[in-house]
Structures are given as C-alpha cells and as structure tokens.
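User: Design a sequence. Structure:
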C-alpha cells in the first residue's frame, strides 16, 4: 500500500473526528515532507518504508537542516499518529496495515530550554521611545499598559470602552470566554481617546487600526511589535506581543506584587478559579500602576542623568532574571 494513501485516509478520519483545520494542515505538511524525503533517498511511496530507520534518518535530516527540536518533534508526532492509525485499520485482505508503530522505537530530539522571553526595564523604555505612527504608539502602549493577550486587544471594539468616574475601563473577553474589565492608565487612556476622536470612530469600529486602516489581526499586531523592537535596537531576542506580557509580569513582581495578583493581572486561571481573584481587583490595579510608575521612573532617571552605564544595566538585568526565576516559573 502507498504511504501517501494511508496518510490521506488518516487525515480524513481525523478531520471527521473533530481535528482542527490547523492541525490537519500541519499533519498533511509533515506527511508530504516525509514522502519527499523518502523519494529523495531513492525509496518509493510504500508503507514498507515507514520504518524506525527511515524516520530516524528523517529526524536527523531536519535537525541538520536547522529545524528546532520542537519543530522536529511536531513532525514526529504527526508520524506517530499515522502509525497508530495504521495499527488499527485493515487493508483489503483483512490484515492490519502496520504490525507495530515504528515511532515506538524512535528517540525524540531533546527540547532546548527556551531563552527567557521578557524585556528588561531599560529595553521597555527603548521600545516606548521608538518613533512610530500615532496608531502604532497607542497599540504598543496599550499592550504594555494592560498586559493583555493579543487576541483580547484585537477583538476589542470602541463600544467596549466605558467610564467609571475618572477611570477609563476596557471590557474584554479573555481566554476561556470569560469577561473581564481592565483599568487603563491615564496617559494611555488619554491618547487612545484622542485618537478615537480624530478617527471619528463609531461604537462598532475596532478599538485599534493598523496603518492601512484595518483591524489588527493577531499576526499583524505581533509583527508590528517585532518591527518596533528591531527599530528600537533590541536584538537580544525576538520581541513578539506575548513577550510584553512576560515583561510586565516581571516588572510587577519587581514592584512587590505577589504571584496570585500577577496571575489575575494576566487573566490567568492557573492558580484556581477565576472567583478567587475577584477580590484582587484593587491589588491588580495597584500592580499595573506600580509598573507604570516604574517605567516612568526609568524614563525620568535617564532623562535627568543620561543612559544607564553598562554596570548599572547589568544590575537591573540580574535582578530581573532573579525575579523571573523565583516568582514567575
């Protein structure tokens, strides 16, 4: 039997059982890559070549081509699912396609420990100071000010803003479909409202628009953050929007916020039910304000005395590394 036929059958089977289109596409790509690898080694599209040896060679090839361990393991997982399917389905003669799953005898590449993905206070200051359009400035400031997920920001409309006395609130739907209300910092809220007035935005309009005048997507907003970080000279790591959440959490810990408060600030539910954090709203607002003041302090200090010296910068970096290890893992 052709391996490609078995793969096609499995993809239809998994889709019928509820696999997402994204998973189906990823698995299809993995099978086509393995098929091309077999042909490149002079083998044929035959299920008999679906062996531990060919899979090990495929894994080695991907690693030597510069693929990360996580990327290689994703492809091996797709092949493992195909192997399980082959063990449970029969051919026209009533025999199972595979007697065993060849992935059972294949070692997976060891995943490397990821780089600590957060920015130091001085780097956040660099990012906040980079020249950009008014819309990009508000989008960037809003991500740092609230530590919201990208989807929570991109899905927000103007009608989700409200006033509570002098406070400007933003209603969002967080992961899991839960509604939450976020208090915006006064400076960010002021710039956002001015921009909305300039746009003459209606309640149903997107809260944020990109430079083309369209609603940001998760990809385009994260790409904007990456581009701004490069423009700011931050090359220590690739800065996507999610990195800003880690950065704000680290700064909140540096200002004295405890882990449950940080979890509530990030709209996490990992420490228990959401109800556990309801009474922490004042603490969450205080933690956000402390981060804002800390960033303003870095800015004021550097404006008064000049940039941090290498020694001073390293002290800040070391402290943030310690906080991240002890409080946020």
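Assistant: Done.
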């Amino acid at each position: 039997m052709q391996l490609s036929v078995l793969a096609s059958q499995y993809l239809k089977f998994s889709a019928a059982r509820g696999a997402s289109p994204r998973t189906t596409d990823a698995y299809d790509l993995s099978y086509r890559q393995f098929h091309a690898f077999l042909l490149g080694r002079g083998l044929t599209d035959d299920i008999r070549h679906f062996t531990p040896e060919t899979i090990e060679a495929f894994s080695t090839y991907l690693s030597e081509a510069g693929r990360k361990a996580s990327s290689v393991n994703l492809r091996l997982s797709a092949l493992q699912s195909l192997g399980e399917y082959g063990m449970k389905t029969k051919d026209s003669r009533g025999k199972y396609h595979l007697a065993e799953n060849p992935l059972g005898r294949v070692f997976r590449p060891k995943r490397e420990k990821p780089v600590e993905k957060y920015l130091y206070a001085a780097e956040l200051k660099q990012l906040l100071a980079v020249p950009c359009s008014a819309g990009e400035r508000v989008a960037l400031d809003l991500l740092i000010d609230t530590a919201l997920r990208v989807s929570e920001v991109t899905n927000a409309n103007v009608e989700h803003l409200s006033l509570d006395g002098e406070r400007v609130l933003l209603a969002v739907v967080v992961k899991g479909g839960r509604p939450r209300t976020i208090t915006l910092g006064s400076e960010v809220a002021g710039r956002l409202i001015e921009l909305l007035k300039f746009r003459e935005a209606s309640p149903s309009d997107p809260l944020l628009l990109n430079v083309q005048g369209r609603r940001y997507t998760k990809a385009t907003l994260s790409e904007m953050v990456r581009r701004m970080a490069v423009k700011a000279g931050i090359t220590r790591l690739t800065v996507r929007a999610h990195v800003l959440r880690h950065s704000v959490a680290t700064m909140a810990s540096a200002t004295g916020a405890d882990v449950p408060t940080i979890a509530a600030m990030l709209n996490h539910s990992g420490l228990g039910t959401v109800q556990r954090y309801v009474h922490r709203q004042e603490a969450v607002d205080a933690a956000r304000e402390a981060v804002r003041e800390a960033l303003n302090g870095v800015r004021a200090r550097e404006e008064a005395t000049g940039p941090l010296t290498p020694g001073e910068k390293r002290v800040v970096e070391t402290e943030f590394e310690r906080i991240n290890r002890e409080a946020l893992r």
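Residues 121-156+217-327 form one domain. Residues 37 and 61 are 9 Å apart (CA to CA).
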